[in-house]
Write a sequence for this structure.
């Protein structure tokens, strides 16, 4: 390989290579500056190749290029061999390939850390060839993680084939836009793999803040007296609640032992909508409302939570617990509690929203075992299915 091609490879430019010669081509492209595990010891390596897992990324859509910066951010945090599968317009039964490096800025005095990105492209008539093309590329004795970004029901055979090989499945489906059927297939426990929804990890800060409201043992009794919950969110499609808000409602229902009742509904509300559902809670009927408004032009297109309010029937009168952003784009959340025995002074904490790349990174880095997620999943599917039906 020429020095110019090797430099282009390290800069992240895709280098076309024959499918059968991917590994051999990578050996040459890394060059003498790369240090491989088990390879020759270099006194002063300028590039260190790090691989913690095999990450298979599905992006069978025309906008595959839009995922590139997200992949680079994820791989920068979680070094791995990334194998990206894309849909091409090439006719016939053929899989083409290109390779590139994904490198992060080094710490002063340290070598640059890089990983590999292999892009496999196949036309619609060749999608069934992709699993066979991927298997020889997997690094031995490392787990395979499947990162799926489109509706798995559209390519169910391919999804199931790759899921069977995976130790973890991470769904990164549009929000809004992903159907309950897509989530039901992707999170099917019969797949035998650990399946997660990346949107769930957007609740990390909100779950912590809600739980901290009731950390003190004398305040936990309020949890059993909750009779209403209101969640405020913004979405690119305000006609229906975003999955992010429904995951928060599902988590609360699962953790606090609520039982779904009746049929939820969605009604227009100004330039947005209100989703209403009823549960049977320890204190009696519990009413959930999710108010969704439109995202403004200055915010990213990812749905955003603005606040959550819980009210309870206290022994000495009504109790309220509110978390709300100081403004739609602010990373700060105001905490306000109006209940006997609580400090009434409002508090503000920093709780920035996780962008899609950092949600995926969190999904890869956190434990495979997540009982709150598993308990909340049936509630999420129930809410999502009724939200879809009500919006039709």
């Amino acid at each position: 390989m020429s020095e110019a091609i090797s430099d282009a490879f390290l800069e992240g430019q895709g280098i076309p290579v024959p499918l059968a010669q991917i590994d051999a081509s990578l050996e040459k492209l890394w060059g003498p500056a790369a240090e491989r595990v088990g390879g020759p010891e270099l006194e002063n390596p300028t590039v260190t190749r790090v691989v913690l897992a095999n990450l298979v990324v599905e992006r069978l859509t025309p906008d595959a290029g839009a995922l590139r910066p997200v992949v680079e951010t994820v791989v920068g945090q979680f070094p791995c061999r990334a194998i990206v599968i894309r849909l091409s317009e090439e006719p016939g039964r053929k899989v083409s390939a290109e390779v590139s490096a994904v490198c992060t800025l080094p710490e002063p005095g340290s070598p640059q850390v890089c990983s590999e990105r292999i892009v496999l492209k196949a036309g619609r008539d060749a999608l069934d060839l992709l699993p066979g093309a991927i298997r020889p590329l997997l690094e031995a004795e490392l787990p395979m993680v499947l990162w799926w970004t489109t509706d798995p029901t559209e390519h169910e055979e391919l999804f199931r084939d790759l899921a069977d090989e995976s130790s973890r499945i991470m769904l990164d489906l549009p929000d809004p836009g992903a159907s309950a059927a897509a989530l039901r297939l992707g999170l099917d426990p019969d797949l035998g793999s650990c399946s997660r929804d990346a949107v769930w990890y957007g609740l990390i800060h909100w779950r912590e803040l809600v739980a901290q409201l009731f950390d003190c043992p004398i305040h936990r009794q309020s949890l059993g007296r909750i009779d209403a919950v209101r969640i405020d969110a913004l979405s690119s499609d305000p006609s229906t609640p975003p999955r992010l808000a429904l995951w928060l409602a599902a988590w609360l229902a699962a953790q606090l032992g609520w039982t779904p009742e009746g049929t939820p509904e969605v009604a227009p509300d100004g330039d947005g909508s209100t989703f209403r559902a009823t549960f049977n809670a320890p204190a009696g009927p519990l009413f959930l409302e999710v108010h969704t408004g439109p995202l403004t032009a200055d915010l990213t297109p990812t749905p955003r939570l603005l606040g959550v309010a819980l009210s309870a029937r206290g022994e000495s009168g009504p109790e309220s617990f509110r978390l709300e952003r100081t403004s739609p784009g602010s990373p700060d959340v105001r905490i306000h509690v109006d209940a006997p025995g609580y400090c009434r002074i409002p508090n503000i904490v920093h709780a920035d929203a996780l962008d899609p790349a950092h949600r995926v990174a969190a999904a890869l880095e956190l434990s495979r075992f997540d009982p709150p997620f598993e308990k909340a999943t049936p509630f999420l599917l129930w809410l999502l299915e009724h939200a879809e039906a009500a919006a039709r």
Remarks:
- Confidence is low (pLDDT under 50) at residues 35-44.
- The chain has two domains: 3-166, 202-354+375-391.
